[in-house]
Amino acid sequence: xxxxxxxxxxxxxxxxxxxxxxxxxxxxxxxxxxxxxxxxxxxxxxxxxxxxxxxxxxxxxxxxxxxxxxxxxxxxxxxxxxxxxxxxxxxxxxxxxxxxxxxxxxxxxxxxxxxxxxxxxxxxxxxxxxxxxxxxxxxxxxxxxxxxxxxxxxxxxxxxxxxxxxxxxxxxxxxxxxxxxxxxxxxxxxxxxxxxxxxxxxxxxxxxxxxxxxxxxxxxxxxxxxxxxxxxxxxxxxxxxxxxxxxxxxxxxxxxxxxxxxxxxxxxxxxxxxxxxxxxxxxxxxxxxxxxxxxxxxxxxxxxxxxxxxxxxxxxxxxxxxxxxxxxxxxxxxxxxxxxxxxxxxxxxxxxxxxxxxxxxxxxxxxxxxxxxxxxxxxxxxxxxxxxxxxxxxxxxxxxxxxxxxxxxxxxxxxxxxxxxxxxxxxxxxxxxxxxxxxxxxxxxxxxxxxxxxxxxxxxxxxxxxxxxxxxxxxxxxxxxxxxxxxxxxxxxxxxxxxxxxxxxxxxxxxxxxxxxxxxxxxxxxxxxxxxxxxxxxxxxxxxxxxxxxxxxxxxxxxxxxxxxxxxxxxxxxxxxxxxxxxxxxxxxxxxxxxxxxxxxxxxxxxxxxxxxxxxxxxxxxxxxxxxxxxxxxxxxxxxxxxxxxxxxxxxxxx
Length: 655
Ligand code: AHR
Hints:
- Helices cover 19% and strands 34% of the residues.
- The protein is an alpha+beta fold and 655 residues long.
- The protein has 3 domains: 5-37 and 546-653, Immunoglobulin-like, CATH 2.60.40; 45-62 and 217-542, Glycosidases (TIM Barrel, Alpha-Beta Barrel); 77-210, Galactose-binding domain-like (Jelly Rolls, Sandwich), CATH 2.60.120.
- Strand 18, helix 7 and strand 19 (399-403) form a beta-alpha-beta unit.
- Helix 5 (330-344) packs across helix 6.
- The protein is globular, with a radius of gyration of 27 Å.
- The structure holds alpha-L-arabinofuranose.
- Alpha-L-arabinofuranose is lined by residues 48, 50, 241-243, 373-374, 406, 431, 460, 503-504, 514.
């Protein structure tokens, strides 16, 4: 059979990863020789608003373009005429409300029947049978009318309706709420907002949320997705990007101050991923409502026990786009100072008061702050220095995260590190989106890194394979096992690598711009990729100290396709031994635990696949999942068998 170039290339990669080797090995774990502490922040997550991760994703709002602020104000909306007529006039009252200037002025002529608007949601509205949905709207009506809601399938069949409420004409904006249940599960429902009577009204902030959000917070986050993040037990959350921090141009950058306070006062902007790519990865309906804003990010971090790591614009737009720089960075530095006050200031400070008004009087205990995302060259270092000077002097308690650009090496990378070393910055963020082979070949990347000076934050990484048409397929087992092999190197070097996060985190299967991604979702379901399970294996067995794993006195980082690292947890008295077998042969190891006594029991968790290109999908989410069994270890010398193509975690109680 003639191989296509892509198939041939994939086969070549798979041979590299799964080359046969029959040798058995000895493996010494020096349990009594902890070499360095593992920072609690070691394994974290990077939330970036890409792939509909926020609006249409984690933020559980089901109505798209709820405040008519998209570039096309009626995007997502259409008229519904059932026995009634009417018209909609998009109206602007910028002088009254600069953050949310538009509303729909609706003329209703429906004394016999109804007239209204239908919203299509984000690639449809996902609703579940018997679950409750909470609707709200701001209305200003000049005549008495009635309002009711219907939920319909994509074919128009009714699958839920609310009672009808009276709208008494007050001429004032007033919030109305309604609740109803869906009678059927449907991934692509539509919401109809229907008026009865005759007259005129103004409508804004038309909103629908599931009642069951994360922690049942009204207007909150999608519970299933947050649970998946919480299950990773991440040490930190880096947010909100990524390139959206930078913006295509400075006017389109992420500004945290416009994302806090009442949701109706948060100023919507276009998401920069709206126009970054051509069909099918473009998304003309991708905007940022900021319903998930900085307060919610801090709250989420607190909920799941992760240190918040906000990234702020450093006075530079994306260098892949306009590359615009701010002449004066003072306002940007002031934003950073104000953010620290918002997070940590007392209730009596201006920004601390807002935090309290939003429901969190206690400080969020911010410890890290990122200055810039993925900037490079002198223009970045010049600006970074200005931030560094002020922030270090005013907030020495905050660790600053700087960037080294988009590449794992090269002149820009070297220049950034040289300059950042001179500044003795706290952490340098490195990004690498590379082939699985690169990850295998770089498992020793940090073994010889300079231990003095800044620490490493591996802030964005993922093994990238060739494209194939199915979105989730790029998260193949082959990419996941290569990341696992590499991560043993991060763990072994935990004295210099203090933080690491896969990227990106979330992707809607029908609205993605970038892949692979850790978690895929649609309007109803979510799926963990093999890469997610690798992250989970490492982050849930973080331990407190690294201990050496040696093979004939040397670290195992690729010899005979084996990669290994280990930690002990001094609080729990356990050993976490990770061994990654990237070959297509089973391997047997004689393990010797030096310095431990009377070991017994333990668990053995294995993520494996005989098919390098295996992946999980929303329809088949369990093709590659970890399996945990009792390890039945007795004593300090024992044999372990590794399956071909496997990521293995042995967790043992130790003395
Ligand atoms: O994660 C996708 C993008 O990759 C990020 O926005 C950016 O930081 C990097 O280039």
